[in-house]
Specification:
The chain is an alpha/beta fold and 251 residues long. It is built from 10 helices and 12 strands.
């Protein structure tokens, strides 16, 4: 079995790391470059860097910030926010990103997934899906969770895989920032129905939640923000606990 990955997420707004609850009520969580360096040293397997206001404000992700983060880390690094073209991805990869994450642009133009995979390869194309439970259905949302679509989570995830994406980053908007645990039922269904890795996001609050998302949710990786940013969970301690629970991780 492949080692499970622990991935701190740096949500960036106006050059600072922020964190909210259910995608709103953001508060400052520190300098992204400093945090990235700390997580790399603490044993994180990867980092995700999301410019959460890029799509909403029609801005491009801050490539220079990506460059400075990449200078400080020695682990794979995914960048997302406002990416809508092959040119956008080319710039980010040249500035040090290992992978890119697309979300709103992929829903609006699914062919973009095919184009990016053809140019850069599946291994560096992550499709992020933000979804919320509405009347018993997981509904895909765009623009930082502000705009509901007609897309349903599982159908869209399957299409994303068919178009060649290398991974899916699934965030449950209902669980985001609540620290009540991940959306393990939905994650387990995604992991069962798809063959590409699924990254769990939204709801991490305790080490038990990570254990559960790997065992019950069958996730390949778990992403979290506030529990790491505010030092509620130490990555090294978390990995030791996962290892003790029989979950394969890189120590």
């Amino acid at each position: 079995m492949l080692a499970k990955r622990i991935i701190p997420c740096l949500d960036i707004k106006d050059g600072r790391t922020v964190k909210g609850v259910n995608f709103v009520d953001l508060r400052d969580a520190g300098d992204p470059v400093e945090l990235a360096e700390i997580y790399s040293q603490e044993g994180a397997d990867e980092l995700v860097f999301l410019d959460i206001s890029a799509t909403e404000q029609k801005r491009k992700t801050l490539a220079d910030l990506v460059y400075h983060v990449a200078e400080k880390v020695s682990i794979p690094f995914t960048v997302g926010g406002g990416i809508s073209s092959v040119e956008d991805v080319d710039i980010l990869l040249q500035n040090g990103a290992d992978k890119v994450s697309i979300n709103s642009s992929a829903v609006k133009n699914p062919q973009l997934i095919n184009d990016l995979v053809a140019k850069f390869g599946s291994q560096c194309i992550v499709v992020a899906i933000d979804a919320k439970m509405i009347e018993g259905e997981w509904i895909v949302h765009l623009v930082g969770g502000k705009v509901p679509t007609e897309r349903k989570l599982f159908e869209w995830a399957k299409e994303v895989e068919q178009r060649g994406a290398g991974e899916i980053l699934f965030t449950s908007m209902d669980h985001d920032g609540t620290k009540d645990g991940f959306a393990n039922t939905a994650l387990a269904q995604l992991s069962t129905e798809l063959n590409i890795p699924i990254i769990a996001s939204g709801g991490a609050g305790t080490m038990r939640h990570f254990i559960d998302t790997f065992k019950e949710g069958k996730a390949d990786a778990a992403l979290a923000a506030s529990v790491f940013h505010f030092k509620e969970i130490n990555i090294k301690d978390l990995k030791e606990e996962l290892n003790n629970q029989g979950i394969p991780v890189r120590i």
